[in-house]
Amino acid sequence: MASVTSLSDSVQQQLASALSATLPEAAGADPLLRRSDRADYQANGILALAKKAGTNPRELAGQVVSRVATGDELIKEVEVSGPGFLNITVSDRAIVANLAARSADGERLGVPYAEAPGTTVIDYAQPNVAKEMHVGHLRSAVIGDAVVQILEFTGEKVVRRHHIGDWGTQFGMLIQYLDEHPGELDHKGGDGVSGEEAMSNLDRLYKAARKLFDADEEFKTRARRRVVDLQAGEPRTLATWQRFVDESKIYFFSVFEKLDMEVRDEDIVGESGYNDMLHETCRLLEESGVAVRSEGALCVFFDDVKGPDGNPVPLIVQKSDGGFGYAATDLSAIRDRVFHHKADTLLYVVDARQALHFRMVFETARRAGWLNESVTAHQLAFGTILGKDGKPFKTRAGETVKLEGLLDEAVDRATAVVREKAGKVGLSEDEIVENGRYVGVGAVKYADLSTSAVRDYKFDLDQMVSLNGDTSVYLQYAYARIRSILRKAGEARPAAHPELELAPAERALGLHLDQFGETLREIAGSYEPHKLAAYLYQLASALTTFYDQCPVLKADTPEQTENRLFLIDLTARTLHRGMALLGIRTPERL
Ligand SMILES: NC(=[NH2+])NCCC[C@H](N)C(=O)O
């Protein structure tokens, strides 16, 4: 099936050609079409073009109007308004015909692929080995997953990278401790260790190792030696290190599963994965003069990065003791992603508090020539999750909040909400449990995805599972309600009736459905999934108005009923697809 040109794109093209026929120097100029309350669209671009050409804007607008073909095909009416705007109304027939073409396009709903898709490597969902995941990791996972889904839908080649923290000096202490207490990571119940048990094992071990490290000088020395062994790739040390990684992965996967999110083992390439590249990265930076030795350390300096004392704060690529840190790994990862994976875009879904690190790393890579105009890197920085009190989210004891507990609580609350209505819908206990899970996890994801990522937001479960307002469960109910009407009407896909006149609420719904592809196109360029959430919420709101004003099963004629069924069917499929792109399920019955 074929992709569908949106009504707004078609109108835009017609205006642009009328415009360039009227004013040849305006060829290729953008008529700046926007949705409008006065008509379907308003074009605001003529004003500026007329000024530039030294002609009267209203006159120019009038000439453009006289060149636009009007009728039933597409543009029904176009008129000059105000100082030189155009108000455009499209025909009912064009709306329904456009939607019918979308409906015929199966799963893609007429959404075109990007014209020139590229390769994006996206770095997201990157917890740390032997450490509990926190709410920041939740944000990275949820936002990153949505961006992956949206980019893949537009045809972009996406390489996923989970840059887990699995390397560094802290492993010396852990490895040494485990070698001295070999039973500590054994699983009591045999092989089938749960994620929770894995994490509590690791946590206990971490605390014990830390305690010994701080108290016992000789242990400290032994631990430091193991760091050297690890970096040298000494086999026994590596084997012990691997146990930490494996145990942590059991835990990570259990959390990702709870999040209802696919993470593939082969996409987990942690900091250790770049170990072999570190020396070469440093050599390249030093030989090109991008990095210089300063007090023994290999450093990159920036004019605009200074400490409180006014002295420059460099990016340290290699410490004076020869050790490599976070920056060396990230610079090596850039080389791998650009030269091996042939990426043209690198994305990093990481906490805004790491913005300076990434700014310095990206600038260093630019100076080295690894990044340039055609190979770019962006941090999709996200803000902090706050508690209800507006302070960073902590438990009462001041500890960071455990992710699993949070998800469990969301699911509990959601299950209660689902249960309340379950009788009316006739849900079985299994369905209640399954829906509770999809509604609860969806609530958490949607809350995260419905505000701009850089903003902090309050984690408020009551609000998140509320049936009214901008929540996932509101959208999920909108979907389920349509599905229930369609089931009542019989499962055959309803046909469109372009010959019918549309009510205002039908037009509004139809014009919004038409914008799906454009919304995705915009997001694929700006990496702002919250705009998809906003789109879907507006879609559900347009649907609510439609229900209020347009009886479906009791419409005036059978054709009108079928056309309305057709409209809500396409709405349901658009909701379903859009929510799936956000990583949220839409149960059939709720
Ligand atoms: N390439 C990167 N540095 N990615 C981000 C890694 C995030 C890091 N593991 C953390 O927990 O903060």
Q: How would you describe what is shown here?
A:
The protein has 590 residues and is α/β, with parallel strands linked by helices. Among the domains are: 7-90, Arginyl tRNA synthetase N-terminal domain (Gyrase A, domain 2, 2-Layer Sandwich), CATH 3.30.1360.70; 415-581, Isoleucyl-tRNA Synthetase, Domain 1 (Orthogonal Bundle). Helices cover 52% and strands 9% of the residues. The chain is built from 20 helices and 13 strands. The protein has helices at residues 7-22, 46-53, 57-67, 92-103, 135-153, 170-180, 195-215, 217-232, 235-258, 278-287, 326-340, 355-367, 403-425, 429-449, 461-464, 472-489, 504-514, 516-526, 530-549, 558-581; strands spanning 33-35, 41-43, 75-81, 85-90, 119-123, 157-161, 292-294, 297-300, 315-318, 345-348, 376-379, 385-386, 457-458. The strands form 4 sheets. Strands 1-2-4-3 form a 4-stranded antiparallel sheet. A hairpin with a 3-residue loop joins β3 and β4. α1 (7-22) crosses α3. It is globular, with a radius of gyration of 29 Å. It starts with 6 loop residues before the first helix and ends in a 9-residue tail after the last helix. The relative contact order is 0.10. The model has no long low-confidence stretch (mean pLDDT 94). The structure holds arginine (ARG). Residues 123, 126, 128, 163, 165, 330, 333, 348, 350 line the site of arginine.
